[in-house]
Every structure is written in C-alpha cells, then in structure tokens.
C-alpha cells in the first residue's frame, strides 16, 4: 500500500466518520426535543389539575362561609358581613339596645 493509498484510506475513514456523526446528531436533537416537549406537556397537565383542585377547594370554602353567614343572620337577626380588612365576620346591630354578645369564631378549613 502506497502512501497515497494510505492517505486516501485515512480521508475515507474521516469522511465516513463525519457522515455517521452527522446522521446521528439530528436524531439525538430530535429525541431531546421530544423529551423536553413531553416533560413540558406533563408539567402543564399537572398545573391544570392543581388549578382545578384549588378552584374546587376555594368554591367549597366559599359555600361553607356563606352557610355560616346565613346561620349568623338567622341567629342574630342582624346583618352579618365579612370584613375583608380584618378578616372577621361582623354583625351590624339593628337594635342598638340589644347586645348580641360575641360572635362564634369562624375558622376556614385548612387549605394546604
């Protein structure tokens, strides 16, 4: 084998290696892209599920609070409202001469 043949064989090997590498790189990139897309899709699904669950719990808490407010309205014959600044239920006394006493405390359910 002459030097020229050896050089040509070496060039052939290098070119073949480059062709093999070049054909594998897009496949690896595509595989990684698909993996990232799937992970993102799974994350979005979990996020939507979490949102639905939190919305459901919030709706349930609002229903419980409304039922408790209605109980207080009936029990105290006054107007009961939720004071957002203090986070407490308050009674507007219709008859200032009548003392309603302390309102039973309402503790919302633990949403954790």
Structure description:
The protein is mainly alpha-helical and 112 residues long. It has one domain (3-92). It has one helix at residues 3-76, and strands at 79-83, 88-92. Strands 1-2 form a two-stranded antiparallel ribbon. The N and C termini lie far apart (78 Å). The mean pLDDT is 72.
Relevant terms:
mainly alpha, 112 residues, rod-shaped, 1 helix, two-stranded antiparallel ribbon
Short structural description:
With 112 residues, the chain is mainly α. The chain has 1 helix and 2 strands, in the order αββ. A two-stranded antiparallel sheet has the order 1-2.
Q: How many individual helices?
A: 1
**Total individual domains:** 1
Percent in strands:
5-15%
Radius of gyration: 36 Å
Task: Give the CA-based shape.
Answer: rod-shaped
Query: Biggest sheet, in brief?
Result: 2 strands, antiparallel
Low-pLDDT runs: none
Tell me the strand order in the biggest sheet: 1-2
Order of H and E elements: HEE
Q: Could you tell me the mean pLDDT? A: 72
What is the helical fraction, as a range of percent? Answer: 55-70%
How many β-strand runs? 2
Structural class category: mainly alpha
SSE arrangement:
Layout: H1 3-76, E1 79-83, E2 88-92
Antiparallel strand pairs: 1-2
């Amino acid at each position: 084998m002459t030097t020229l043949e050896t050089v040509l064989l070496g060039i052939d090997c290098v070119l073949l290696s480059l062709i093999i590498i070049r054909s594998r790189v897009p496949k690896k990139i595509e595989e990684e892209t698909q993996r990232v897309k799937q992970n993102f899709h799974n994350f979005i699904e979990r996020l939507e599920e979490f949102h639905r669950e939190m919305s459901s719990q919030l709706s349930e808490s609002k229903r419980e609070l409304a039922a408790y407010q209605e109980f207080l309205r009936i029990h105290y014959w006054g107007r009961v409202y939720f004071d957002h600044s203090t986070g407490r239920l308050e009674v507007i006394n219709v008859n200032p001469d009548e003392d309603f006493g302390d309102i039973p405390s309402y503790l919302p359910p633990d949403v954790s």
